[in-house]
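Troubleshooting: if your tokenizer reports a length mismatch, compare against these two reference records.
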Amino acid sequence: MIHFVLLIVCAVAIYLSCEWFVNAVEWLGERLNVGKMAVGTILAAFGTALPESVVTLVAVTTGSTDEAKDIGVGAAMGGPLALATVAYGVTGAMLLLKRRKERGRTAVLVAAGGGAPGTGVQPAADARQTLGTEKDMKRLAKDQKWFLPIFIVKVGLGLVAFAFKPVLGLLFFAAYAVYFWREIRGGEDEDGEEEELEPLKFQPKAASPATWAVVAQTLATLAVIFFASQLFVKQLDAIGPMIGLSASVTALLLSPIATELPEIMNAVIWVRQGKTKLALANISGAMMIQATVPSGLGLLFTKWHFDGALLWSGLITMAAIVYLLLTMRAHKLTPARLSVAAGFYVVFALGLIPILG
């Protein structure tokens, strides 16, 4: 029972620390004067993706055997898979739940006479409504267009072997540097909408918190997220065999979701606060980090050779992104269609049965 108790405790700790983290990172973006979208794609994504990148770095540089180093390769492939399917799917489900509650609240107000003309009560958004304007869709699709070709190259390199392949790892770092620069400068092209920030948790009574408090809250919450995520993964590794799952199935199915739990929690919190753009930006930004930094480390320090399970995870990830790109380009991305992305993870799980068998 201790493993199940620790699992729940870690999940609660991750959620609460993410709540404080998104609060701090929004203030950090304001202090650094970066664009609103860059807060999600760069600052929040870098913070939450850092623990997984450290895990990959430790595995590929200190692993004494090829099997130990392959843990880092699996993490580099599992992260984008979980983000492209489960993270987007959970975000879509949260949007559906939020809009259903809004419709119910509006119906109650209308029935009570609060929805009469001139009262200021607006009808709730329909679940079939797209997630943004045509400009928003183009902005979301642009991140996926950056991710997909990089990921295709990443998978392709896992199927071939040649002498200078490790050197190509440097190109992945360069690709993220270009993406980073584009996002930081992208604030100039954003809408001039100003959103009032919630008071900093460390200084709830201050209208403008001190910079040291913003930095301290950011670093403290990141530390909690890092250690709670690692403990969460260890509990899953122990629970998996208890419920009849092999170590390989646990590593491929459950561990990626556990390591990407901070990004998922951030998305849930931002959707609850009505900041859908930030939620989606955090996921797409984390995907770019996962597609480049861990991949570069893996290419530099391992053979970067894929087995059937890793190739299958790559194919499912690409299929999920193509699905999202098509709906975004057609301006038909709704919460319901976004939640469908989680179905690709189910397909991945079913496909593992014959591969591991």
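Reference record two:
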Amino acid sequence: MPAIFSLLLSGCDKGNPLTVVKAAAVGVPSLAPFFEENNGLGEDAATVRSQPVQGSLQQGDTPGLYGGSKQPTICDVVKLERFLTDPRNHQKAQAWADVLNIGTDGIPKYLDRLTPVLLRHDTLVKNHDYKKEKAVPYNSLLQAGIAILVDEQGLPAMKCSCGNPLRPFQGDTGRISVQFEDGNKKWAGYERESVVAVKPAPRKLERVALVDVQEPARGIDRPVGTTGEKDTAFDAEKRRTVPHLAGRSFAQARRELIGAGLAAGYAGQGVPPEGAKVTATDPPAGTELPFGRYVMLSVAGGGTSGSGGTSGPTTPTTTPPPTSSGPRTPPTSTPPSSGSSSGRPGTSPSPPRSSPPSASTASSTAPGSPSPGKSSSRPSPPPSTGSPSTGAPVTSSAPAPPPPPPPPPPSTTSAPATSGPATGQPATSGPATSEPADDGPSTAVAT
């Protein structure tokens, strides 16, 4: 009987085979690195344990997706730049740049826009070994605690300890077969259901809000393109209010949660469609949560499970959240956003950074107006002689006034909103990278 059952399962899975993924544990050297690991390019954090996730595909600007520490040099970007720009390493630099869709002459500028972080989740990526003077891609699961560089849209770009370039994982996160070999033994706390893959934030980030892996109550506000020397701290335990999201599109609800310093969760392996209407949240609107906690979104035709940042499931909310919670109160615990300053110390000279006009370099919350098709509010129709619209009385002299526009989102996506003066470093306006943005102006990507 077990054999027949196994055969039936095998037949069902023929059209959707498992994706083989190689595990990469903290502190285990790569067998085919771009950069010799004993040269001190980067250092992982062995004490980090993977955090639970509510939705296996998260945007690079998700609050609390990444961690940091008070140690400012978990990844020596200056040393990497010297290595890749050394003429003796031209072949290796060419293979490295090809993976990231840039030219070798663009390596210094590209590196200047990367930001070092520590993984807080076991994270799926497309990794690359260096074999026979070529970059060889393979799917990999990086253990929480591994130090990486992320680009301007929060995407993993490089594994710090070995310099191997990273690209987004393209497989089904729910159908993976993780291989623990070559010294990469299964680590404590590993759960296949709790791995995460990262997709780009819709817009470039100015800063990344991290959780200190040694002091979880401490948040770290790190300007993009800096290695820790410009960090400012904020209170990660400060409560953020869950906004009223019923009737919003999934994309708009996620933007509002990110602006509030909270993460958008969903049930199942598939991300709800961007335009799917949110019917309820768990916990409901008005609930106060610490920075980076998950708020589960139920959408029309779908359900939800789990609760705001807890590791175990709870009963989902099945009715719309109460309207008495009022509008979202902007968080006040975040540090001021970054202002102009010098770049990464010791790097090759590069053009000074300046804030471009409009919000093309801001975070995934659209600073002007929501993207087309993502707003749930509509202006009132013009006066007519037909039947008046329902929901508000119409006088004989004028139509009902249109509803007020939603409050403007914060200036960055992964960091809490702030109204203080800028004190750090603005985002660069350099050339875009290979991953196209999925909202707002085209940014071909550099979290």
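Descriptive notes for reference record two:
- The longest strand covers residues 123-131.
- The two ends are 48 Å apart (CA to CA).
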